[in-house]
Amino acid sequence: MTQYCKPICLALAVAACFSPSISAQAQDSQAQVLVTATRQPQVAKDVLADNVVITAEQIHLSGATSIVDLLQQQRGIEISRTGGAGSVSSVFIRGAANSQSVVFVDGVRIGSSTTGGATWSSIPLSQIERIEIVYGPLSSLYGADAMGGVIQLFTKKSGPQSRTSLNVGMGSNHLRKYEAGIFGSSASDFQYSLNSAKESSDGFSASKPASGAFTYNADKDGYTQKSFNGNLAWKLNSALTLGVNFVQSTLDVDFDAGPSYKDRGQQKFDNVASYAKAKLAPNWNSSLQLSRNTDRVYTDASYGKGNADTKQRGWTWQNDVSFGKDVLQFVFEDREEDVRTNTAGISGKRDTQSYALAYTMKQDAHLASLSGRVDDSSQYGKHSTGSIAYGYKLSDVLRVNASYGTSFRAPTFNELYYPGFGVASNRPELGKNAEAGLFYDDNVWQLSAVYYQNKITDLLVSTNPCPVEVATHRYGCAYNVNKATLSGFTLGASARLGQWNLRGTMDIQDPTDDTTGKRLARRAKQHGSLGVDYRMGDLTLGAESVFSGERYDDPANRNRLAGYGIVNLIATYKLSTSWQLLARWNNVADKEYELARNYRTPESNFYLGLSYGFK
Fold first, then answer.
1. Helices within 129-221 (DSSP H only)
2. Does an H or E element contain 70, and which?
3. Which of 413, 522, 586, 566 is closest to 82 using CA atoms?
4. Given a cut of 60, is residue 440 above it in pLDDT?
5. What stretches of 378-468 adopt beta strand conformation (E)?
6. CA 142, 145, 148, 150: dihedral to nearest 10 degrees?
7. Residue 586's closest CA among 202, 128, 173, 5?
8. Can you tell me the mean pLDDT for 320-331?
9. How far is it, in rounded angstroms, from Cα 57 to Cα 68?
10. How many CB atoms lie within 10 A of CB 108?
């Protein structure tokens, strides 16, 4: 605790005068609606799954450069990163690996089928207006890989009023940000939005000298990201709406792979979804979505050039039939993954057909949900998952929950086919999660406490020596040899007290590889955040702190990463009804810490932004 005590104390000392904007603001959860937890709009106070919502205002006022920076503030989430914004990043939900959680953008599943999980650095925060995080296994609703949780990102869309938005900003390391958007609707029920952005930074050297001769390079590792987002929707009549959402991003980024070459990469993210929403009967809503997502990674480095492209195409037909306050849901899906790389043997396709059935109940003080799903893959076969949850309202403001669910993670193409590493017979990982929680919300105070235990079998790890049946892999291989337990308490609190908004989170966890008895790499036993803000008319001042205990950079727990704590200060000033000024000072104590061994993190840095038209 001593490694991060000083920054925490500093945060508490300045809390009386300054504020964080991002998740410190208590929300009116009575009006908050979530979609991801049950695949249908549901009032927050009736959602049984543990969740967090990051609103458009919180994103706008955060001054965050990347989605990963934003997520680091949330309970139950840890991150790792090999440098600054634009570098390789991973997100751990309740101790689950990046590949053990699912990410959606506007209902479309995204990610890489070669490495597994989302390529976070390629997703432009400038195009996102809302984020929903749902914790715990959701394979019974979303299929493979939803073991630790699901994160859904919603792009910027039009509201009932037409508007124009402009955002410009500058900061340390020659950071420049530009964004412009138009949002509107017509009297004939046509809505549209178009938003474009560009962001660039000279960056800093990502690696440290201790990383070795094959990695370290003293040059600066900058990036440039250009992105575009659009939404079109037509309400043809009271029973039928047609629409299309699209977002595209290109990230050019420098990285370190030795001193003799200007190593660089390009990541392209492309997401398109067209949909039709129809009311087939007074109590029957039906939707059909056709989607395509592309995740492209190209590298030009001292060790050679490479590319790994994942294209996902699919359709989803969802039906919600209501019986009073209860809803019966049935879903049919088909998802094709098409992988193309310059590494021999990895390229290929797999197709997964799925069907799911779910029922949510709301009867007086009783809340319940039941769901089941079957996924049939052309590559790894058929898998069934299920979930059951029950909640009881002890009063209007206090509820207890309990749930149990199963999940699985599909092996990646690298784990199946990478030369000298992959094993074609590898099976999916399997998970069984049980949890119980207590939730309090009187619209002033919001408190939550959840205990969870997620048992994972057939854990895919890199093992050396390999089993006898794959003894030809001389330097180790991916194989289903281990078991893991992800258990812990996740605590959250927020309050709105007059002009004050307060927030705090704490996670006490034990993410353990049961086969070796070692802690899972880059995951701490304790981590959390603190925040407070104070509003004085048009001026808001605040502070926030993120802290973490020690971690290990490797599965063998030989390379220790020290605990850390950082403090950020924020100020926003409303110049007029349309113009707003934001200033953010990150890492005010200039704390030196690591999220990955021998890779730097940002030093003390500053950002100043001016925005027009935010609503």
1. 139-142
2. helix 67-71
3. 522
4. yes
5. 381-393, 398-409, 429-441, 445-463
6. -40
7. 173
8. 96
9. 17
10. 23
Q: How far apart are CA 230 and CA 195, in angstroms?
A: 6
CA dist 490 and 8 (Å) reads: 19
Does residue 465 have a cis bond before it (omega within 30 degrees)? yes
- Token digits of residue 615: 């609503």
Binning pLDDT at 50, 70 and 90, where does residue 24 land? Answer: very low
Cβ density class 543-558: b for 16+ within 10 Å, e for less: bbbbbbbbbbbebebe
- Of the candidates 402, 433, 415, the one whose C-alpha atom is nearest the C-alpha of residue 470 is 415
Q: At 3, is the pLDDT very low, low, confident or very high (cuts 50, 70, 90)?
A: very low
| Residue whose C-alpha is closest to residue 437's, from 489, 362, 508, 395 | 489
Q: Is the pLDDT of residue 161 over 90?
A: no
pLDDT attached to residue 31: 65
Q: How far is CA 135 from CA 117, 407, 532, in A?
A: 16, 13, 24
CA distances from 531 to 17, 32, 48, 339, 543 (A): 12, 21, 26, 43, 6
Residue given tokens 């006022």 in the structure block:
61
Taking the C-alpha atoms of residue 606 and residue 174, their distance in angstroms, rounded to an integer, is 10
**What does the DSSP assignment read for 272-321?**
EEEEEEEEEETTEEEEEEEEEEEEEEEEEETTEEEEEEEEEEEEEEEEEE
Q: Is the distance from CB of 78 to CB of 68 less than 8 angstroms?
A: no
pLDDT digits (tens, 9 = 90+) for 358-416: 999 999 999 999 999 999 999 999 999 999 999 999 999 999 999 999 999 999 999 99
The string of DSSP letters for 12-29 reads HHHTTT-B--SS-S---T
Percentages helix, strand, coil for the chain (3-state, rounded to 5) are: 10, 60, 35
pLDDT of residue 153: 97
Amino acid at 436: A
Percent share of the chain, pLDDT over 70: 94
pLDDT greater than 70 at residue 136: yes
